[in-house]
Structures are given as C-alpha cells and as structure tokens.
Amino acid sequence: MMESFDILWSVFSDFANPKKRVFAGYLLLSLIIAFGWLLFVRREKLSKAVAKILDKKVFFSSSAIADYKIFVINRLFSLFISPLLITHLAIATAIFYALHEQSFIPQGYFDDANKGLVIALFSLAMFLMDDFTKYLVHRWMHRWPLLWAIHKVHHSAETLTPVTVYRVHPLEGVLYGLRGTFSHGVVLSVFFFLFGNLVDIYTVVGINVLVFLFHVTGSNLRHSHINISYWPWLEHILISPAQHQIHHSVAEQHFDKNFGAALAIWDWLFGSLHVSESGQEIEFGLDASQRSSGDNLFVLYWGPLADMGRVLRRRYRKYVQKLGAMPSVAKK
Ligand SMILES: [Zn+2]
Ligand SMILES: [Zn+2]
Description:
Distance between the termini: 76 Å
Helix content: 55-70%
Shape: globular
Radius of gyration: 23 Å
Bound molecules: zinc ion
C-alpha cells in the first residue's frame, strides 16, 4: 500500500517541485499573467477572459488527454530509467580531473575572488550553457531525420496545455537528460576547479535565480492557447509564448523557427528567429504529410522507433548501392 502511494507521489511530485516548470506556484502565476494579458492588454471582458482561459475544447481535446496519459507513462518510465543514467557528478568529476592535466591555470587560482560575484557568474554560466545546449539539441532534432522521428511526438500535439511539455518520446527525455548532465557537469567542474571552495553545495542544489525568473514570468504559457507576445526588440532576446507557439505551427513559413527555450539570441544569431505576428491565429500540429494516427498512444510510442528503423534501412540501402556502383567506376 505504502509503496503504491510512493509511486503515485513520485509521478506527480513535479507539481510540488519548484525546480520543475509545472510547479503549482508557477502554474498559478501563469494563470494570473494570462488573465492580466487578456484583461489589460487585449481589453477583453472578464467573462470572456475566463471562458477563453478555461476553454474546454483545449483542456479536454483528444490531444490534451493524450498529453495527460503520456505525462503519467513518461514519469513512470523516468522513475525506472533515471538511476541508470550517468550523474552530473560523474561527468563533473571526470572533467575536474581532466583539468588537472593542463598546466596553464593552477587549481583554485581565483580562490580569493568575491564570493557574491562568483555565485552570480556561476548562475549565469549555468543558465547560458543550459539554454544554448537546449537550442542546439532542439535544432538537431528538427534537422536530422533520425531525431525528428522522435521529436515528432511533441509536435503532434494539436492543442497546447502546460502538460504538453511532457509530450515527448522517452528517448527524447533520455537525450535531454544526457544534455543536462553534460552541460551542468562542464560548468560545475570548471567552477570548482577555478574557484575552489567558493562554489559550495548550496549553489549547486539551489534553484538558479535566472531559471526561477523564467518560470515566474509564465514559462508555462508557451504551451497554451494564450498568445502573449513581447515587443519585437525583446523577442530578439527572450522567446515569448507566442514565439514558441509559432514553433508548433503547421504553416510552412513557420517551419524550423524559434528553437530557443528561454533566450531568443541563439535563434537570432543562427538565423532561425521568427518574431510574433499581430492577430496571430495559429493551427498547431504536424502538416498533412507528417500526420499519423493522431493521439493513439501505441502509435506515439512505437511509431518513432519504426520510423527510425526506416531511416536506418534507407541509409543502409544507399550505402550498399554506393558500394555496388564502385566497381563500375573502376572499370572505366
Ligand atoms: Zn520542436
Ligand atoms: Zn513545445
């Protein structure tokens, strides 16, 4: 009995964890921001704002219901897989010792630096590294057919709710987990090496103030039907909810735009930025050629593996054809 309660608690614990986007406090703040936006910026009546935010067609759509089921399945999956994943500390330790091998900068060289400054620098480095690697991996997921097969699951959502952030294939979860481990490990080990004892364990386990700011300013609204936009100049620096909704659009002009998580500067730098449009009405999901059987869970979990198999077989066939063509070249 106790054990099943523990499992149940673990599945839903993200709602009580301030490190997670769907923490109840952040959800509540997102709700307040959505109301504020509709009432004071869009100048809509209260009754209309309530009806829009709590739209049954969104929260009880077959896409949203699939999201809720995927949430539970993926949380169960991660409970079993996470102990198998390599830890941040293992990576950090490996890099820490690798740094000992170099002789340009001795260990603890900046040991007497100002502690406040070091913590601020550490938080900034952690945030930038995390956000940049998210951008990079997300971009690869759209570019490489093998990874797109997996990422398609997230884009198959036809309505967006804060739970849609969990609508990912477990393999995508594993890949993002490894990315997080790598990026945190690199920053941690470099800071431990340079600043020694100044980066204490509290800095490491606490919530990064920049991540906290990202969540309290409505990170949950990027997966929602409330298209909050920023000023165009700000949308070159921070990704607005409307910009992530563009990322989910079926329209061709929106393909491969706005891969960023919190910062828009990566999209701006690498030419994938798309600022929001006034009166933006977006249809979410995959275009007709990519659509499979919608929200069927079996297809959502098994489909990507079958697609990956197809991509690999195609590659293999091309490779064999190339090999077969070689002797005829040699005959000439
Ligand atoms: Zn994407
Ligand atoms: Zn998304």
